[in-house]
Write a structure and sequence with these properties.
This protein is of the alpha+beta class and 202 residues long. The protein has one domain. It is 46% helix and 29% strand. The protein is built from six helices and six strands; from the N terminus they run H-E-E-E-H-H-E-H-E-E-H-H. It has a six-stranded mixed sheet with strand order 3-2-1-6-4-5, with helices on one face. Strand 1 and strand 2 form a beta hairpin.
Length: 202
Amino acid sequence: MWVVVALCSLAALTALLLCIPVDLDLRLEVYGKAALHLRVEWLFGRLRKAFRTGEERKVPALPKPEKKAGKPRAVVSTGRLLWRLVRVSGLVESVARLWGRLLHCFSIRRLYLDFRAGLEDPADTALLLGPVCLKAMFVNLWTGDDIRLVPVFEGEPFLEGQGGIGVRLYPIRTVPPLLAFLFNPSTLKTLIVVVRWKWRRR
């Protein structure tokens, strides 16, 4: 009896935690060098983690690994496995369906773009970026998002500014599409193919 109560309590607690939204804030800055920032927040900002790329870091030199014999054979074997996975009936459609359903689990909270861009030829800048800037202005008026793109006619390639997007994800929404994918017959066939491939390599 206590085991059933404990399992039910654990399931309820897990469902409650999955109902707490996860906020993702992705920001791109281009000022001479591109830098990408990602911030993940959970528990309504109580837990957060920031990631940043584009910074120069000194990586210690590592000794070069020795080349092992038989590597081309392993590459060929992996290639054959990938070819067999692609040929599994319904796997590609199942993965595409899962990807589309997962994208619908995200909701956009805010979107902002503020860039100055130009091409080498000012005529190309006016021809290509002019309509885009005009559409960005109308999108800004209709949606309320902060979107601004300014053409620059300096006779050389130029890009400067920043932009970002903030999305919110409720993890509980990802459970149905993930379960549908895991219990799909094509996924089970894929698992069988991988297990057989691992068994033959022993």
